């Protein structure tokens, strides 16, 4: 297993170029929370030539739709959602300077190309750890599209938020590599 | 008791469903937790082992701090085994179940993930309606089985009508293909529900129903039970592993349900379930 890398957001292009598929990373700093419905609105806004409600330069977008917080909690469960549904919108956000995405599951071939082209990175958080991951979120507030409920755009402050690099700027795909590596390792035993 | 019928007021169904919604989203069933623990012991990939440990830690945290196991608290699937000697009073069964879902999701602070129409896509605001299946059974009791089914894994499910000549090998190939294709999206290690036989609609229902069975409980049909064991081994040979990041544990268990089928057909349905395999039941 690779050593843990600590990373502070927002990210620079240099930060992104140092990351490789399979790297395990602890992220601290701001994250922007947005999923399907918010992405759709962000892209519609861009297509109308209007400014976005959030500045995406250097930002990492976390695909999550949290459950409501109980009294005394920062947020409810807040694990990653399936990323491939967001692929259709990702290039627009990369053009606005987004440097990273956190979700779970495969990205399509086009999105993997865009990651290389725009100097971005796709991280996976472990799906189904909604309670555990919520403990790494220090601050959560809605910053746009409040009417979307769980799908509103949120600003998070996270501390040591654990992720794995899946798609790096070098075109590698850890979701493709990892099971293959394991099969050959298991066969050799 | 009237004319040999046991009267049950539907408000009891509403109360029970509300409790099951809250309980299932916070308390991972013992059978699932036990299989995760066994998998963690066996898993040879260090990263896979660590992830299985985190999944167990997440379950404990959810239970003790009352944080949902997963933020996707699902589309609520309900199977009702309604005893034929029960007479329901005080209202409509389906409305009573949906009222329970409404109350459970509100009081339990669970996420609302249901939209009014697949194309209009407006949130219904209370996670209703549930996906309700009713089976009439002998007796004077009602068994309510509830599963908050997450979207990530549900979306990777598949159904295919094979040719009878494809046989058991064809069934195995399709199931393993579906699991491999589901990959990290379905949050492995998965529980795999397989339906074989029946008609198009019934086959899909069998796959869903298979997921309601307790993990470790093999089919009473010896051929199905053998298929379950073979399929589990084949799924775990894909190398997908926990979270799809490589390892031995791709599936925790495979459940097969079968039904007679037409001379021309061999329908197979695969309903993939994530490791947060939440399901609870209660008898009224």
> Count the strands of chain A?
7
In DSSP terms (H or I, runs of 4 or more residues), the helix count of chain B works out at 8
CATH topology of the largest domain in chain B: 60s Ribosomal Protein L30, Chain: A
Outline of chain B: globular
CATH architecture of the largest domain in chain B: 2-Layer Sandwich
Distance between the termini of chain B: 15 Å
In which order are the strands of the major sheet of chain B placed? 4-2-5-10
Which strand-content bin applies to the residues of chain A? 25-35%
- Going by CATH, the homologous superfamily of chain A would be Fe-S hydro-lyase, tartrate dehydratase beta-type, catalytic domain
Return the domain count of chain A. Answer: 1
User: What about the largest sheet of chain A?
Assistant: 5 strands, mixed, barrel
End-to-end Cα distance of chain A: 18 Å
- Contiguous uncertain segments of 5+ residues of chain B: none
Biggest beta sheet attributes of chain B? 4 strands, mixed
CATH first level of chain A: which class? Alpha Beta
Task: Choose one word for the global shape of chain A.
Answer: globular
């Amino acid at each position: 297993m690779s050593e843990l890398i600590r990373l502070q957001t927002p990210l620079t292009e240099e930060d992104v170029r140092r990351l490789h598929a399979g790297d395990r990373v602890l992220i601290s700093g701001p994250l922007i929370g947005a999923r399907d419905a918010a992405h759709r609105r962000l892209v519609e806004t861009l297509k109308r030539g209007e400014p976005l409600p959030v500045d995406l330069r250097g930002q990492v977008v976390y695909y999550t739709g949290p459950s409501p917080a109980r009294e005394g909690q920062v947020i409810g469960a807040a694990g990653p959602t399936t990323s491939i549904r967001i692929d259709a919108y990702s290039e627009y956000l990369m053009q606005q300077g987004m440097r990273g995405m956190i979700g779970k599951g495969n990205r399509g071939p086009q999105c993997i190309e865009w990651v290389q082209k725009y100097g971005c990175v796709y991280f996976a958080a472990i799906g189904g750890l909604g309670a555990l991951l919520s403990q790494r979120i220090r601050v959560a507030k809605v910053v746009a599209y409040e009417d979307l409920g769980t799908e509103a755009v949120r600003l998070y402050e996270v501390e040591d938020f654990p992720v794995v690099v899946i798609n790096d700027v070098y075109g590698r795909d850890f979701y493709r590599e990892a099971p293959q590596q394991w099969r050959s390792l298991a066969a050799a035993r | 008791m009237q004319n040999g019928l046991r009267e049950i007021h539907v408000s009891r169904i509403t109360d029970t469903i509300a409790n099951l919604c809250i309980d299932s989203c916070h308390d991972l069933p013992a059978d699932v937790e036990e299989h995760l623990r066994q998998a963690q012991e066996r898993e040879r990939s260090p990263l896979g082992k660590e992830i299985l440990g985190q999944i167990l830690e997440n379950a404990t945290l959810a239970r003790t701090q009352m944080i949902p196991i997963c933020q996707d608290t699902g589309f609520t699937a309900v199977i009702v085994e309604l005893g034929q000697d029960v007479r329901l009073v005080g209202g409509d069964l389906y409305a009573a179940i949906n009222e329970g879902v409404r109350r459970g999701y509100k009081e339990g602070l669970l996420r609302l993930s249901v939209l009014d129409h697949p194309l209009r896509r407006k949130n219904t605001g209370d996670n209703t309606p549930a996906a309700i299946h009713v089976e009439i059974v002998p007796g004077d009791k009602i068994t309510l089985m509830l599963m908050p089914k997450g979207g990530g894994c549900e979306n990777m499910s598949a159904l295919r009508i094979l040719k009878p000549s494809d046989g058991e090998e064809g069934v195995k190939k399709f199931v393993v293909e579906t699991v491999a294709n589901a990959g990290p999206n379905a949050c492995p290690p998965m529980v795999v529900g397989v339906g074989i036989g029946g008609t198009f609609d019934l086959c899909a229902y069998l796959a869903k129903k298979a997921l309601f069975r307790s993990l470790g409980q093999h089919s009473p049909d010896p051929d199905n039970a053998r298929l379950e064991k073979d399929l589990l081994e084949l799924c775990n040979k894909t190398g997908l592993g926990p979270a799809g990041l490589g390892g031995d544990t791709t599936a925790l268990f495979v459940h097969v349900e079968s039904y007679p089928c037409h001379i021309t057909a061999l329908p197979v349905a695969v309903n993939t379930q994530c490791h947060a395999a939440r399901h609870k039941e209660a008898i009224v």
